Amino acid sequence: MRISRIASVAAVSALAGLASAQCGSKPSNERAESRGYGVVLASDSDHHGHQGPDSIVEVAQSAGTFNTLIAAVQAAGLAETLMGEGPFTVFAPSDEAFAKLPAGTVESLLKKENLGTLRAILTYHVVPGRFTADDVSSLSNAATANGQRVDFAVGSWGVRVDNARVVTANIEAENGIIHVIDSVIMPETQNIVGVADAAGSFSTLIAAAKAAGLAGALSGEGPLTVLAPTDEAFQKLPRGTVASLLKPENRDQLAAILKLHVIPGRVYSDQAFAAQRGDTLNGQPVTFRIDGGTPKVNGATILTTDIEASNGVIHVIDTVLIPG
Predict the structure, then answer these.
(1) Average pLDDT of 40-56?
(2) SS3 breakdown of the chain: % helix, strand, coil, rounded to 5?
(3) Per-residue DSSP letter, 102
(4) Average pLDDT value for the chain
């Protein structure tokens, strides 16, 4: 099996009915009971005299506790584009969850210049498909409509989605299911170059990307997967190699090396090792394997996996890959 492009999740329609401004509020007759992990499970009762559950928008608006979420969806311009049949799983922050954000955060996100960030946050709360509390409890993570993964954990304290606790689970809707969470979960909003720069251990890689004219691509929409050599990895090259590669006359050679470290698409470590091979921007494939319990790509050891960026994912390696 070969990885050529694993695109980020395309189901941007996942917030669906939460965005409709036309549905009026209705009183809710929802019943709930406590069961397992301290999570409240909503019953599958009829709503408002209907046979079966309402759509996500009706369920959310009738609850009366998601006003900030609905307002944010509308402000982000998702009201029309995020309509779909589903099914969708929504991890819905309550009004109280939004109130826990630092003062002024919501107001700032609602500004026109920050709507891209707001959209990224909102779609991070949605997983395409219908995942019940039992499903979530059996998973370690899931891909969101944002493209990044959310992590799940279960313990005596309950069920967590990243740093948020599920306080009410399994609220059924016609086109999906809602789990109420007590905090707003935040995706990574920095791009690959920003994440690498903030880490402080990839200065040579960033300098090389700029010299090769690739920094723009690594800062672009993506998604991309970067096998990122550390500064120590570059230091393992023969003396003078980096200085030579950074010269303008060697730009093409440098670009060829760096492109061997980039795979189109957002490829997480489990996907990479399942596929065993990945097609790079260089045109040559790289091989993923587990060698004596150590994760490897070609001749490099993978030190850290699955570092999220807004436009992809980073895997840290200890050796610079050289084209054959």
Answers:
(1) 55
(2) 30, 25, 40
(3) P
(4) 85
